[in-house]
């Protein structure tokens, strides 16, 4: 029973970074912009957050640095694809490759660095409950803030005027522009907010989840987060569920290894990526379902007056 509680706790921890990045990418795509550079954003934010934590010892400063790095790179990406109408897919791939190389270069001096003992969070009265306490109530505050963010985004997108405008820009930027909304600025803001969330996800990986810096430590989570938005049909609650599902698959490999299951470790390491491929294959069998839920202008450039 105790092992199951630890597995559930590890699932929440592993899913948090995926959920944050997935929610950020969902905001991007709801505005009509697809950003394939999430992997690079998360890597740059991971080293920015880790370096800040090493020098300041502050988790808050580390997350702020990660968010700032993600937002800055996302802003550059946004300027290119929104104002210069560069190809969104090619620009995103270029951003991913840049982030991978840049983080490896900057991070060479931090590979041996170690952070001080991380704050252990215990919620009074709840963390001591058998099974439930270790599983649900001994996590970093960002785990709970991520759940709150998903709930807020669900309300924001479907119950608020600003969310309706964001969705309108993603569905028909021409109509939104005709009504007087600054489509380009709204898209840029959405891209920057999405980049900031990807940045917080990257900082969480290097500062809380690991906590250390290793080249390429994001290990494909940016790509899984991209797949997650499609898997969730662009709905925040489903992004959260999908993130924990993938997080659980990731943790399952370690659990099975600990139980002595006689399966090559390489096969177990493949599980999260195999699950991603299987989910995408199953979704692609019903393209009409994707088309109905997908923002109509996703990936399409918009130029006022054209």
Automatic annotation (TrEMBL):
Pfam families: BPD_transp_2
UniProt keyword Membrane present: yes
Topological relation to the membrane, as annotated: Multi-pass membrane protein
InterPro entries in alphabetical order: ABC_transp_permease
Signal peptide bounds: none
Transmembrane segments: 6-26, 33-54, 60-82, 89-110, 141-158, 188-207, 213-232, 239-255, 267-284
Keywords on record: Cell membrane, Membrane, Transmembrane, Transmembrane helix
Keyword hit for Secreted: no
Subcellular location per the Swiss-Prot or TrEMBL entry: Cell membrane
Protein name listed in UniProt: ABC transporter permease
């Amino acid at each position: 029973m105790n092992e199951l509680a630890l597995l559930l706790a590890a699932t929440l921890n592993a899913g948090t970074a995926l959920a944050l990045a997935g929610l950020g990418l969902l905001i991007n795509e709801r505005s009509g912009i697809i950003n394939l550079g999430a992997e690079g954003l998360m890597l740059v934010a991971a080293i920015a957050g880790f370096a800040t934590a090493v020098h300041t010892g502050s988790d808050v400063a580390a997350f702020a640095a990660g968010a700032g790095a993600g937002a800055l790179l996302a802003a550059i990406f946004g300027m290119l694809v929104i104002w210069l109408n560069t190809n969104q897919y090619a620009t995103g791939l270029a951003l991913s490759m840049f982030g991978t190389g840049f983080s490896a270069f900057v991070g060479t001096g931090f590979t041996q660095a170690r952070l001080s003992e991380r704050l252990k969070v215990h919620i009074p009265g709840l963390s001591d409950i058998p099974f439930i306490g270790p599983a649900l109530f001994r996590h970093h505050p960002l785990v709970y803030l991520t759940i709150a963010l998903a709930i807020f985004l669900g309300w924001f997108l479907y119950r608020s005027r600003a969310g309706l405008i964001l969705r309108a820009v993603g569905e028909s930027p021409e109509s939104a522009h005709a009504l007087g909304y600054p489509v380009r600025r709204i898209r840029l803001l959405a891209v920057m907010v999405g980049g900031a969330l990807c940045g917080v996800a990257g900082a969480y990986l290097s500062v809380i989840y690991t906590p250390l810096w290793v080249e390429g430590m994001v290990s494909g989570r940016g790509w899984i987060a991209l797949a997650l938005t499609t898997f969730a049909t662009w709905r925040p609650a489903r992004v959260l569920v999908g993130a924990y599902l993938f997080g659980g698959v990731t943790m399952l490999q370690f659990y099975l290894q600990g139980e002595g299951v006689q399966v090559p470790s390489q096969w177990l390491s493949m599980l999260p990526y195999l699950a991603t491929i299987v989910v995408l294959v199953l979704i692609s069998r019903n393209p009409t379902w994707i088309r109905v839920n997908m923002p109509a202008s996703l990936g399409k450039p918009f130029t006022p007056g054209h």
